[in-house]
Specification:
Length: 587
């Protein structure tokens, strides 16, 4: 059921029709130039470079997006060259795909940007090694892909966002909307609001600070800190049963904040009236929320910005990369190269689509593999059905195929961050149009695309089950680390260490807590037999971590005001309890 909900989820904030128009323009120019220099095949290759550069352009601040586009285009061009060179030989194709998939998968462990660049590079290598007729002009083909990608980057560079923090505002708006939705449902959606929007906004803003600090960015960071603090208190409200009036007042306040952030207005607002502050078990949590909001208004909320994380710098940490990625890199290389060897051995036309599906679907965690595999099958089937209807309604001339291909590009870009199924459908429509444009009979391409995608996606899912890397088995370890680091943060505040040290412990504790949430949420998608024993009590532990984090932060604020000695004594007891829990978990 969780998988179905995830597949059917449509994120309104991810619907980007205007941004998609710019990417559409970049692909259109690339297709036109490619058609002029290389005919239909040149149009497809240049369009492919622009398509992948456009896919890499979403997410992150403007400077980071440009860097990622340049890296993705360069990698795509190099793998195009290599793929075209080794393509005539079955043996060299399989060997090259295995080495490339393994190496690029290791690079992907350095972060989300590196993962996107690496996955696209593997995809290009698989496709260009498998496309017949692409092996005669490897340098020319690489140049077309390079030109298409850099052309896309140049167009997007010209249209720099009018607001220098537009991406940061969108990310923060999603945070407040998520909290508001949770409050409006009276906390019935679970013990905690989703941490995903918070993590995404935090990573984005950390990246933005790497290009210089600005007053508006610092204000948005403070609003994010406030949202994180409120989130922990919401768990306490759920457990103690806050009144409906308090929930609705808080929801209205959070929604108003989201609206201010989205419209670029100064976020100046007073704490909402929270019924029940002076009564019942929910009273202390409501008072903490008020205190945190007032501290933020008065500039007393502890705020510090961690250093931005560079994925290139992260690659210098060889031990971390090895621990995180070696096992998955080996599994990924075996899976993609095995799919390549199978279609080569059986001489399957367009069998590289199956290997491509493996490259895009297989991920380190089971949850993402399941989501991408099923989502890709459903989306591809939908896209092919729409492409079939399009061809039957409109005679497939070069013009109509080109227009259909470009229209599909716009749809795919507009839906990329809103729905994976819709994004996959747009890509499938694009592929069917582009392959037909290159000369293949449409009557066979649609069914081959569906069959190959389904086979590759199911193969990736099978590999994930037969060669598993279950997240659930790590539950006790990540929870123990989260409780231990939170105890350290509590002691740092209790000992009234300097502000920078307290913030450092706070960031470390929050990172461990968010990692525990990510892993436990991902483990929920794993087979019941693999997770039943490990996840027992995990959600209660996450709620306790969030509540304790809110309690520690409240005292942190008081410590900065040189106030409340009894609360410091409470922190010492809380730290001792968290350490005891961590020791029990490591048992």
């Amino acid at each position: 059921m969780a998988l179905v909900r995830s597949l059917l989820t449509f994120e309104p904030a991810g619907w980007r029709p205007v941004s998609a128009l710019l990417r559409f323009l970049g692909v259109s120019v690339a297709v036109a130039v490619g058609m002029y220099f290389g005919g239909r095949g040149g149009a497809v290759l240049a369009g492919l470079g622009a398509l992948y550069a456009g896919m890499a352009s979403f997410g992150g601040v403007h400077q980071a997006r440009l860097k990622r586009m340049v890296a993705a285009t360069t990698a795509a061009s190099l793998t195009t060259l290599v793929g075209c060179m080794v393509g005539p030989s079955d043996l060299w194709t399989v060997i090259t795909v295995a080495i490339g998939a393994f190496t690029l998968s290791l690079l992907a462990a350095a972060g989300a940007d590196a993962a996107q660049v690496a996955t696209q590079a593997v995809a290009i290598l698989v496709v260009l090694a498998g496309v017949k007729g692409s092996h005669d002009h490897p340098l020319g083909n690489a140049a077309l892909v390079l030109g298409g990608g850099f052309g896309q980057a140049a167009i997007l560079m010209l249209f720099h966002p009018i607001s220098p923090v537009a991406a940061e505002r969108r990310a923060l708006e999603a945070v407040y909307l998520g909290l508001g939705r949770f409050a409006r449902h009276l906390g019935k959606d679970g013990p905690l609001p989703s941490a995903a929007p918070h993590a995404a906004a935090r990573d984005l803003m950390r990246s933005a600070f790497g290009y210089g600090s600005r007053p508006e960015l610092e204000k948005l960071w403070m609003e994010l800190e406030l949202a994180d603090a409120i989130r922990g208190n919401l768990s306490g409200l759920v457990r103690t049963g806050a009144s409906e009036e308090a929930w609705i007042a808080l929801a209205d306040w959070l929604d108003a904040g989201a609206d201010d952030i989205a419209r670029g207005r100064p976020v100046i607002r007073k704490c909402p009236p929270l019924t029940g502050e002076d009564e019942g078990e929910a009273g202390p949590w409501l008072r903490r929320i008020r205190a945190i909001i007032e501290a933020e208004e008065g500039g007393r909320l502890p705020v510090g910005v961690p250093a931005p994380r560079s994925w290139l710098a992260a690659m210098r940490n060889v031990e971390a990369v090895r621990a995180l990625a070696l096992g998955h890199a080996l599994r990924y290389a075996v899976a993609v190269s095995a799919a390549t060897a199978l279609y080569r051995y059986f001489k399957i036309d367009h069998g590289y689509w199956a290997a491509l599906a493996v490259a895009f679907s297989l991920r380190a965690d089971f949850a993402t593999t399941v989501f991408r595999s099923i989502g890709r099958i459903v989306g591809t089937s939908l896209g092919v059905l729409l492409a079939t209807a399009f061809v039957f309604l409109i005679h497939p001339t070069t013009t109509s195929l080109t227009l259909g291909m470009l229209g599909a590009v716009w749809v795919a870009f507009a839906l990329q961050n809103a729905t994976y199924v819709g994004f996959s459908a747009g890509l499938a429509f694009y592929v069917v149009m582009s392959v037909t444009l290159s000369g293949m009979a449409f009557s066979t391409v649609g069914l081959e695309r569906i069959g190959a995608t389904a086979a590759g996606s199911l193969f990736a899912l099978t590999i994930a089950i037969v060669w598993p890397s279950w997240e659930a088995s790590k539950t006790r370890t990540v929870l123990a680390v989260a409780f231990a680091t939170q105890a350290e943060y509590a002691l740092a505040v209790a000992e009234v260490q300097d502000p920078e040290t307290m913030n450092a412990f706070r960031f470390r504790a929050r990172g461990a807590r968010l990692e525990a949430e990510r892993l436990i949420n991902a483990a929920g998608f794993e087979p019941r037999w693999s997770r039943r024993r490990h996840l027992e009590g995990a959600n209660d532990a996450l709620a306790r971590l969030a509540e304790n984090a809110a309690r520690i932060l409240a005292v942190h604020v008081l410590v900065l005001d040189h106030d409340d000695k009894p609360a410091i004594d409470d922190l010492r007891r809380l730290a001792a309890e968290d350490r005891h829990v961590a020791a029990d978990l490591m048992g």
